[in-house]
């Protein structure tokens, strides 16, 4: 879902950021974007395109909207109307994908020679990942929505996230789970792990502790039960002569339903066609059967036994499953049969084949519409009312349950954790944890505790032997030397190699010259001046301005961080520079 917005960024003038994504995510995201563009083109074909602002964006039309629709159009504070943008085109999608650097799991990518970036499976969906970003001063792990027991995707690789200085926790998906699931709210106290019990555990013991927590929360079993319930409801609908529309967004759930619904139909001795209608359906289903490296071990074992990774190729061969690009496909019209079960976009119920299908069956009380939780059902179904059609809304876990958060973090052992501000009141981290907990919010800067000191610098031996050390006049505890060379940063290492000679460089000065001594030094050179103004403030510190009167006009600004000489006469400027040099350190 996140990739759907990416073309809006990449087509922005001046955009030059580096984009990283896994190979599977990039391909699946590209197909989703292409499908969205295709549905939008179909919409324009029927209703016409509008090069200017849509009519509904006029204030006269906005005032006629219901409060809920007006909130969608204008935002919470009524200032987001200007944020609406025309949808991108196919060319924008192609250009966007070209700018993405794709990675495999655990593959190294170096950004600017300094940051080491790796992606590790999060278990949420095929290709979904968490990230580690290693720099010379801090190692950061980014945890997004993750699942410990995925049905299709590769398992959550939490081992790779251990031992980082900072964990940025950005799993917002479980925000409503805590209050919606009493079973998981009533855990016994033994599921709370503190640092005293986990800090000294070995890796094997860590796994044991985490598995104990997982055994109390078998999300994969819960997900399978929900899929089974959807299948039974679908079979009941077709038995009654109704049809089923499934515009779900989660690919993993769709793949499960495509495998399980035929099993339920066969056990009920029913022959009902299953249609998948989407402009990218054929490519999407074919892609899922050639990516074993992105799937769980159970799916990979099918490859070695000579079986397809998923069952939809066999279902298509057996004419139980049909794939069509759109509802107007001639082949679909010739094979059309009711009742039927249809998978088609779009989950918003505003674009795609689902709009036509809902208009066809909305008055059939035996038909069924399956939606995901989180969608405002009343708002989504508003254009299709009155509706006699049954609606089944299901929620699927798309992140880490709160009860697992603390045991997981104790096993990962970070030096600090950042949580979203929205979760401050909901999440309960034990006071005995071994890491500080901070909370971040949108558009706010957060100071994070420093993890490491200075960066190591390797100096070529021929340069190191040429360093001429000298004491600072104002600091006897510090030695300083001039170093001339070229700085190279590669794979996190900083090196200085031979470059221009030191003698080729101009003399460097530092320090805060005393104004009275400066006037005395200038007087010996025949230059007369006076201190005209003294200022002091919290930001700039003490500033002093010296006006030169003879032999010509000049200005000297002595500031806390620099001294500025302003003079039309180059010879006078050189004399002033020379005088300042006698009062400051230099190499």
TrEMBL record:
Give the keywords, sorted.
Cytoplasm, Nucleus
Q: Where is the Beta-Casp domain?
A: 254-375
**UniProt lineage:** Eukaryota, Viridiplantae, Streptophyta, Embryophyta, Tracheophyta
Question: Sorted alphabetically, which InterPro entries does this protein's record hold?
Answer: Beta_Casp, Integrator_9su, Metallo-B-lactamas, RibonucZ/Hydroxyglut_hydro
Pfam families in the cross-refs: Beta-Casp (PF10996), Lactamase_B_6 (PF16661)
> What GO terms in the biological process aspect are recorded for it?
snRNA 3'-end processing
Instruction: Give the family, as the similarity comment puts it.
Output: Belongs to the metallo-beta-lactamase superfamily. RNA-metabolizing metallo-beta-lactamase-like family. INTS9 subfamily.
Which N-terminal residues, if any, form the signal peptide? none
* Localization per record: Cytoplasm; Nucleus
Where it mainly occurs, coarsely classed, is cytoplasm
Which protein is depicted?
INTEGRATOR COMPLEX SUBUNIT 9
Native species of this protein? Salix koriyanagi
Q: Which GO terms describe its cellular component?
A: cytoplasm; integrator complex
């Amino acid at each position: 879902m996140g990739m759907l917005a990416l073309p809006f960024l990449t087509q922005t003038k001046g955009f030059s950021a580096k984009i990283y994504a896994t190979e599977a995510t990039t391909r699946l995201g590209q197909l989703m974007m292409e499908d969205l563009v295709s549905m939008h083109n179909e919409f324009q074909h029927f209703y016409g395109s509008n090069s200017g602002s849509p009519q509904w964006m006029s204030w006269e039309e906005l005032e006629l909207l219901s409060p809920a629709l007006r909130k969608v159009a204008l935002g919470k504070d009524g200032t987001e109307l200007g944020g609406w943008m025309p949808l991108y085109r196919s060319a924008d999608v192609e250009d966007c994908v070209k700018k993405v650097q794709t990675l495999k799991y655990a593959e190294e990518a170096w950004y600017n020679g300094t940051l080491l970036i790796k992606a590790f499976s999060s278990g949420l969906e095929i290709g979904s990942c968490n990230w580690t970003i290693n720099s010379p001063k801090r190692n950061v792990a980014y945890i997004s929505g993750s699942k410990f027991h995925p049905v299709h995707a590769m398992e959550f690789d939490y081992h790779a996230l251990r031992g980082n200085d900072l964990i940025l926790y950005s799993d917002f998906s479980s925000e409503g789970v805590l209050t919606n699931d009493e079973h998981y709210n009533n855990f016994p106290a033994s599921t709370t792990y503190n640092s005293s019990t986990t800090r000294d555990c070995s890796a094997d013991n860590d796994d044991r502790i985490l598995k104990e927590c997982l055994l109390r929360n078998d999300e994969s079993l819960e997900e399978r039960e929900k899929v089974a319930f959807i299948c039974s409801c679908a079979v009941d609908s077709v038995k009654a002569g109704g049809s089923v529309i499934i515009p779900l967004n989660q690919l993993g759930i769709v793949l499960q339903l495509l495998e399980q619904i035929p099993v339920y139909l066969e056990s009920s001795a029913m022959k009902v066609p299953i249609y998948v209608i989407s402009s990218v359906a054929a490519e999407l289903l074919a892609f899922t059967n050639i990516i074993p490296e992105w799937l769980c071990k159970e799916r990979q074992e099918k490859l070695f036994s000579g079986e397809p990774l998923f069952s939809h190729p066999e279902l298509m061969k057996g004419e139980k499953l049909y794939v069509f690009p759109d509802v107007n496909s001639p082949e679909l019209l010739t094979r059309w049969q009711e009742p039927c079960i249809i998978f088609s976009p779009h989950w918003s119920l505003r674009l795609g084949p689902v709009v036509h299908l809902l208009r066809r069956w909305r008055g059939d009380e035996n038909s069924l519409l399956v939606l995901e939780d989180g969608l405002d059902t009343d708002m989504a179904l508003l254009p299709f009312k009155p509706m006699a059609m049954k609606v089944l809304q299901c929620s699927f876990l798309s992140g880490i349950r709160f009860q697992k958060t603390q045991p997981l973090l104790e096993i990962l052992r970070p030096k600090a954790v950042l949580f979203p501000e929205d979760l401050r009141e909901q999440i309960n981290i034990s006071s005995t944890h071994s890491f500080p907990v901070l909370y971040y919010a949108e558009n706010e800067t957060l100071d994070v505790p420093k993890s490491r000191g200075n960066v190591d610098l390797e100096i070529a031996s021929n340069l190191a032997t040429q360093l001429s050390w000298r004491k600072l006049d104002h600091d006897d505890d510090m030695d300083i030397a001039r170093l001339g060379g070229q700085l190279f940063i590669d794979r996190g290492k900083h090196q200085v190699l031979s470059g221009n000679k030191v003698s080729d460089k101009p003399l460097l000065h530092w320090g805060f010259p005393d104004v009275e001594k400066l006037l005395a030094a200038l007087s010996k050179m025949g230059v007369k001046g006076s201190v005209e103004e003294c200022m002091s403030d919290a930001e700039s510190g003490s500033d002093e301005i010296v006006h030169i009167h003879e032999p010509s006009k000049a200005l000297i600004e002595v500031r806390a961080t620099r001294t500025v000489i302003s003079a039309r006469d180059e010879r006078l400027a050189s004399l002033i520079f020379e005088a300042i040099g006698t009062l400051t350190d230099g190499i």
